[in-house]
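for the writeup, i need someone to sanity check this before i put it in the appendix. the sequnce is what the collaborator sent (i think, or maybe the updated version? ugh). structure was predicted straight from it, no edits. if anything looks off just tell me and ill rerun, i have time this weekend
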Amino acid sequence: MNYYKHEKDHIYYSDLYDRHTVTIGRLMDKDLKRRKNEPLKLFKARKAIHDLCMYFWKGEEYAKKDKQIQAWISEDRRKDELLENSEQLKNIHCLCCNKIMKCFDKSLRERYGHEYVFFMYSCPDCNSCRAFYNDGTEYRVKPAKCKKCGSENVKKSTKKIKGELTVYTKCNKCKNIDVYTYGNIEEKKDLDFAKDRDKYCLTSEEGQEYIQSNKAVEEMNEIWEKQKRRRKNLIKSSEKRRFRDEKGEFVL
């Protein structure tokens, strides 16, 4: 039986994460570019803040990358285990010839907010098909109807033009034709992705350098906070030794 494998090689998730990062980075730069007509002094100040934010954003994106990739891998591995361990329903009969049908595919589908394994069966004699969820519920396809007169006597046809898939539903009763276009179903080429990945995604060396420098800053902040607490305690201690005599206030 065939079924879709969710878990992929590590490089797939790494590229996926980088594509998300590039998309966000482009939006951030686009927001800056649309302000280029502002007064020069204001734009320079805004760009300086933007560049500083981009530095920390790129570093944090790298720092979160491994954790997010592991989360994706774990989720896809869970789905594969669910599919692998699910047992198909047995003794499914064809509604046309009453022959035992064979399960040829299983996948995951969401139904009423829950995840189910979806089994598809075909008849070896007449090629009829049936489908069931793993709880035994049969999936029954609702017949297409004409949106104008409600007749089920309709015929569907599809046409693909320049990557756009268009579905035509013609009613044989009232001759009405419904047209629905799914848009461009072909993946568009991103000729600037490699260049923009170098711009927005840190390399391993750059990422580790950011992490180490960030740790150094955190250590300095911790030392600074300790010094502040020590200085505060010294001030409180000195205030307790303060006394007043006839000539005024003195501190020992």
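The beta strands are 2-3, 102-111, 114-122, 129-133, 138-139, 154-161, 164-171, 177-184, 242-245, 248-251. The longest helix spans residues 40-85.
thx in advance!!
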